[in-house]
Design brief:
The protein is mainly β. It is built from two helices and 39 strands. Strands 11-14-15-30-29-26 form a six-stranded antiparallel sheet, with no helix packed on it. The chain has a five-stranded mixed sheet with strand order 1-33-34-35-36, with no helix packed on it. The radius of gyration is 23 Å and the shape is globular. The two termini are about 30 Å apart. The relative contact order is 0.15.
Length: about 600
């Protein structure tokens, strides 16, 4: 009884302390001003009002119904007590950050002749200079007045050049659609999915979808992705990252993610870190002359919002897979700079260095998760570092200036038949095209010396198909990769040491993790679940401490901020169609009970 009394008394003391903390800081506001919380993309907050002792008292503070249903991936931006959120299909809402009350709404006038290659999701806006900047699914960059939502300027960043779409009819009745029961859900194209970054009067954004491939859906609207199909040929286009004048929208520089010369690279037999690749280098070199224009269709989407090193004037971003996706016969060589972490001069767009995680990628291992900046302690030396959580299932850390690989972490997901080729019977592979870690941003706690990674274990079957020659074409080979419906699949949240790459703890959840991670100085790590929950775990142990309920998958990155001294944790609950998570249309905020 004595032990129970002491525990109860301590809990009561902590509750009073939390209430006093709210009262003592009344009037103070803390924003979430950029995509990654800060320029380093660390998604780590110094707020401590919500902590390991009181997080189980979090309750719903407000809910905003966007009335727009679809895969919801946006990071809310909070500046001056106003929250700006991009919606599926490129709407934008401005809300009062303490109540969720709508201030204004922008409805996007999409160019209907440009089909969405990769779904309706948008990953966020940038707010600067009294303007709200957003890239769109129809490959435009727009600026809105932050006070009214009125459009200020609108730039077509691709000029309508969407690239060549894969055509399922190419494969006729032989297309592996389970007897015609699957439909085409997406093809290569060009759009903008990432949240822009604004630095020194430049709005920086890149195009996506250029090597997306042929995606097939199952008839069940709540079922996950059916298959990704790779067909040899001239499909897609090359991607780019570009900078635009923040006042006018005029293009200042552009970096093509696949160069016109040198795209074939060095015909590497291994990854840069030494893992053997199943390549026939001699055959690729013989075939090179047959495909002199492969670079024009080369892929290399810019999926991830760049992290900015303002001190050194560098930006870092990841590139997508080469095009055609998976099928490498019509694109011999390393296919530079696809599946790479790339560093550019932020003011000129000139390349400084690159690290190609997977040369001549045939598995869809694009560099999707946004890079993060931190300082690593390597053999007693403080090294400015940039890290990225790969679809490959490793966290890579590099010297920020030179690109030198500092370490590759312990694998944070199981692996089987890694870098194996497809077979007619189907090769079971994990991690596969899903990851590893997908587009989910990590968080970094430099005080605890940890990076927190949202991971996925979901085996895929990689199958080789052959169409016999007919009057229209010769023998045609293509490959498909499909998530398996049988066997174990789950999500895994990992804490990895920033200095060594060693795993510190892992927290397993029932469903693959997609959406992103938030950490706080009070020792909490938040992430969302596809089953419709936002959870908090102890940053020191990985033990789950709290779960907040939503009515759809919480598959967008959570953020935290304060208004009048009260700390809020907010995430969009809109689900994710590719993963089969229930879609919805709300933004939800949690906070401690008001004092």
């Amino acid at each position: 009884m004595r032990h129970v009394f002491r525990t109860t008394a301590l809990a009561a003391t902590l509750c009073v302390a939390a209430s006093l903390a709210v009262a003592a800081t009344a009037g103070a506001d803390t924003d979430w001003p950029v995509f990654g919380g800060n320029w380093q993309h660390q998604r780590h907050s110094e707020l401590t009002q919500i902590n390991v002792h009181n997080v189980n008292r979090l309750e719903p503070a407000w809910t905003f119904d966007t009335k727009v249903s679809g895969s919801f991936q946006a990071t809310p931006i909070v500046v001056g007590r106003v929250m700006y959120v991009s919606l599926p299909f490129n709407g934008v809402v401005a809300l009062k950050a303490d109540t969720g009350e709508e201030i204004w709404r922008y409805i996007h006038d999409r160019i209907k002749s440009r089909p969405m290659c990769c779904g309706p999701a948008n990953r966020g806006v940038a707010v600067e200079n009294g303007l709200v900047y957003m890239g769109t699914v129809d490959s435009r960059l727009i600026a809105l007045d932050a006070q009214t939502g009125k459009k200020v300027w609108d730039v077509d960043v691709t000029g309508g050049e969407q690239g060549v779409h894969e055509d399922a009819d190419t494969l006729g009745k032989d297309l592996n659609t389970n007897g015609g029961k699957m439909t085409v859900a997406g093809t290569s194209g060009a759009g903008i999915n990432m949240a822009p970054m604004v630095v020194d009067g430049l709005v920086i954004v890149g195009i996506t979808g250029v090597g997306y491939g042929l995606h097939l859906d199952k008839p069940d609207p709540n079922a996950p992705l059916g298959e990704v199909v790779g067909i040899a040929g001239k499909y897609g286009r090359r991607g780019f990252m570009a900078a635009f004048d923040a006042k006018t929208g005029q293009q200042v520089w552009k970096f093509d993610t696949v160069p016109a010369t040198g795209w074939e690279g060095h015909f590497r037999k291994t990854t840069p870190d030494g893992v053997p690749l199943p390549r026939n280098i001699a055959q690729e070199k013989r075939e090179l002359k047959k495909y002199p224009d492969a670079w024009e269709y080369g892929g290399g989407s810019a999926w991830s919002t760049p992290a900015i090193d303002r001190e050194n004037g560098l930006l870092y971003f990841g590139t997508g897979n080469p095009s055609p996706q998976m099928e490498g016969s019509s694109r011999p060589g390393d296919n530079l700079y696809t599946a790479s972490l790339v560093a550019l001069d932020v003011h000129t767009g000139k390349i400084k260095w690159y690290y190609q995680q997977v040369p001549h990628d045939q598995w869809g291992y694009d560099v999707a998760s946004p890079p993060v900046l931190f300082t690593a302690n390597i053999k007693g030396k403080q090294v400015p570092a940039v890290g990225e959580a790969g679809k490959t299932g490793w966290f890579y850390a590099h010297d920020r200036i030179t690109g030198k690989l500092l370490y590759k972490s312990d694998s944070f997901v199981p692996r089987k038949n890694f870098f194996k080729k497809p077979t007619e019977a189907g090769t079971l592979i994990y991690p596969g095209v899903i990851g590893g870690s997908n587009w989910s941003p990590v968080s970094v706690d430099e005080q605890r010396r940890d990076v927190f990674v949202a991971g996925i274990h979901w085996p895929v079957r990689y199958t080789l198909h052959t169409l016999p020659a007919n009057a229209d074409h010769g023998e045609l080979k293509y490959s498909s990769m499909a998530p398996t419906d049988d066997g174990e699949r789950y999500g895994i949240l990992s804490a990895i040491n920033l200095d060594t790459g060693k795993l510190r703890w892992q927290h397993k959840v029932d469903q693959p993790l997609i959406g992103g991670v938030l950490s706080t100085a009070s020792g909490l790590v938040f992430t969302g679940l596809g089953e419709g929950k936002l959870i908090a775990v102890d940053a020191d142990t990985g033990k789950q401490l709290w779960a907040g309920q939503a009515d759809a998958g919480v598959n967008a990155p959570p953020v935290t901020y304060t208004v009048d001294g009260r700390q809020y944790v907010v995430a969009a609950a809109g689900g994710n169609k590719l993963f089969g998570y229930k879609t919805g249309h709300t933004i939800r905020a949690w906070a401690l009970p008001a004092p």
